[in-house]
């Protein structure tokens, strides 16, 4: 299992767990399938921002 700090580890269609903006304090994770990668840079210290199939946007914490 990889963390979501490196864009190369995340592909469209990958199953991931993300933290949404309003859950950052609690750290509550939402799982889903990546439909879009929104972060432009190769890495991000808080996780790569993605959009899931369910249209939820969050930062990847785990790649399953």
Polypeptide structure, described:
The protein has strands at about 15-20, 30-35, 50, 55-64. It is an all-beta fold. It is globular and about 25 Å long. The protein is built from no helices and 4 strands.
Ordered list of secondary-structure elements with their pairings:
Layout: E1 15-19, E2 29-37, E3 49-52, E4 57-63
Antiparallel strand pairs: 1-2, 1-4, 2-3, 3-4
Tags for this model:
single chain; mainly beta; 39% strand
**Rg computed from alpha carbons, rounded to a whole number of angstroms:** 10 Å
Summarize the amount of helix as a percent range: under 10%
Number of strands: 4
| Total count of helical runs of at least 4 residues | 0
Mean pLDDT: 96
Strand order of the largest sheet: 1-2-3-4
H and E string: EEEE
Distance between the termini: 6 Å
| Low-pLDDT segments | none
> How much of the residues is beta strand, in percent?
35-45%
| Category from helices, strands and their pairing | mainly beta
